[in-house]
């Protein structure tokens, strides 16, 4: 089994990787670049884990993004372990919503839960699980809490198989479904989104139908389609973030 650890910079990736693997690590570089590549074995399992470069999006604009997205797309990953900073849900979930479009199960480790607790931020992670159709586990890689639970979930493979398709407006969602039906590939949703975004790396997947659909969309919206998709993601994320966060400190000051 192959697990890919992925998250924003400073989300706690290295701290968690070290905890999960102990001294069982192989360190090198990604081919052709001086970006560190670390692999290891998760303690008391036969799961190999790779620490992918820290990124904010699966776009083709930085070397780190290129490495990570190529790896996820081509390297038969069995499970994505997405580590996120609980104190910065909006930025973190932007990447999460993209990972969920791949045909790979995702577990989200809500890291920095110790800081969230200190600040009185109470995240309804069951609500987030439902809204994103994924498995979430609060942890603190620094304080070493929740990590045992995380390993158990990874080992038991008792996580949701994401089916999530509810962030885009009706028109975009209809177009995505039509394009997906034309594409013969495991990652058809991810590819369909990339085609709508006019991502140059995915041109080869275009069919007659998908080309027409994207052309029509471009005319209808008359704006950069990548921006439209990004706006839709943020709209959805802001919504579920607001619903999922209850500030317990704030609640305590509310009296009548
Ligand atoms: P990376 O850039 O994603 O590899 O992040 P690091 O593992 O290097 O962590 C970035 C910083 O956050 C370091 O100073 C860590 O000690 C700290 N850190 C990581 N996880 C936690 C956590 O759960 N709680 C707190 N308070 N700090 C953390
Ligand atoms: Mg790191
Ligand atoms: K998926």
From TrEMBL:
Mg(2+) 2 binds at residues 18, 21. It is found in: Cell inner membrane. Mg(2+) 1 binds at residue 22. Signal peptide: none annotated. GTP binds at residues 7-14, 32-36, 51-54, 111-114. Probable transporter of a GTP-driven Fe(2+) uptake system. Belongs to the TRAFAC class TrmE-Era-EngA-EngB-Septin-like GTPase superfamily. FeoB GTPase (TC 9.A.8) family. This is Ferrous iron transport protein B. It comes from Mariniplasma anaerobium. The chain holds residues 1 to 256 of 660 of the full protein.
């Amino acid at each position: 089994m192959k697990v890919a650890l992925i998250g924003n910079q400073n989300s706690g990736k290295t701290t968690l990787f070290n905890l999960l693997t102990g001294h069982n690590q192989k360190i090198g570089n990604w081919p052709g670049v001086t970006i560190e590549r670390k692999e290891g074995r998760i303690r008391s399992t036969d799961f190999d884990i790779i620490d992918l470069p820290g990124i904010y999006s699966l776009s083709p604009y930085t070397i780190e993004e290129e490495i990570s997205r190529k790896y996820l797309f081509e390297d038969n990953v069995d499970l994505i372990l997405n580590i996120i900073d609980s104190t910065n849900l909006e930025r973190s979930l932007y990447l999460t919503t993209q990972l969920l479009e791949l045909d790979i199960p995702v577990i989200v480790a809500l890291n920095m839960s110790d800081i969230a607790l200190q600040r009185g931020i109470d995240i309804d992670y069951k609500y987030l699980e439902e809204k994103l159709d994924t498995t979430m586990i609060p942890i603190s890689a620094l304080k070493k809490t929740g990590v045992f639970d995380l390993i158990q979930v990874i080992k038991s493979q008792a996580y949701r198989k994401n089916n999530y398709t509810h962030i885009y407006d009706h028109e975009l969602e209809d177009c995505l479904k039509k394009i997906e039906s034309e594409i013969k590939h495991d990652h058809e949703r991810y590819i369909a989104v990339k085609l709508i975004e006019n991502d140059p790396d995915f041109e080869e997947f275009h069919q007659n139908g998908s080309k027409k659909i994207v052309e029509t969309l471009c005319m209808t919206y008359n704006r950069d389609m990548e921006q439209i998709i990004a706006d839709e993601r943020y709209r959805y994320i802001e919504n579920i973030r607001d619903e999922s966060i209850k500030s317990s400190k704030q609640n305590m000051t509310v009296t009548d």
